[in-house]
Predict the structure.
Amino acid sequence: MSRAFQSAAYPALRLRRTRASAWSRSLHAEHRIGPQDFIWPLFVTEGSGVEEPISSLPGVSRWSVDGIVARAKEARDAGIPCLALFPNTQADRRSDDGKEALNPDNLMCRAIRAIKDAAPDIGILTDVALDPYTVHGQDGLLDDSGYVVNDATVEVLIGQSLNQAAAGADIIAPSDMMDGRVGAIRAALEQDGHHNVQIMAYAAKYASAFYGPFRDAVGSRGLLKGDKKNYQMDPANGAEALREVALDLAEGADSVMVKPGLPYLDIVARVKDAFDVPVFAYQVSGEYAMIEASAAAGAGDRDALVLETLMAFKRAGCSGVLTYHALHAARLING
Ligand SMILES: NCC(=O)CCC(=O)O
Ligand SMILES: [Mg+2]
């Protein structure tokens, strides 16, 4: 006696069945988010015992190196694998050519060394671009017309990368969007013996309105003249992001980043589909501020908003996410 197979349809088929209890929802979850998925961006400032809250980024402060070390230990204890460091360079150390980026004793290098001393097991990602060091707030060198010149900037970025690697950086993350910089930096790292120093390329970085609070944090908002549209990508473009990623991978990037995050999850998903390499996203300062503002206005539950947005990155295909909510989210998840 054979029984004809009948494909199920409602009422036999009910997608709500597996959602009916918490244990079942947990069993059927396609993605999970945890502290191991986070990279925590931190802002370093001069002095000791200094905490400077950033008003446009509520809940985030600049810390002097001792405070950064304390944050690094908290991150490590919460299971966060990696920090991203950004310096707030004093005005008298900024210049047209950003040469403070090459100083082996600059704030970044001192912070890297202090973290490596106190918490050697946490990874350190360092940003490569000149905006924290220039008087004009652009990521590179300017010609007489104010255009950010590519090849001469790349030469300085090589020096900046080697300086960070020598101080102990684990992941060099060029965020400048100059053409050819990943290959040039990789070659220089190899030549200097930094074979295991990774490159996470800010491959698809958009000229975005979501970076405002970050510029406050590193002190470049008031300095920046004009915009960054002649090197960062046009938000209108998606296919071009795939070309940017392809080039950075061909030049030796170990992983790639899409930035900003939530408004560009379509790009994350396309990159993951097309290349199947480690993809990260940066949930940038303006996104963080938007979540904080909406929670403060009573539009939603802060913790739920944080965890839902972070899960969206995993669903889109991210290996991990740079987020200012990292410690808070890790502690929520750890319980
Ligand atoms: N290169 C790092 C950034 O530009 C961060 C932007 C942000 O958090 O708004
Ligand atoms: Mg590029």
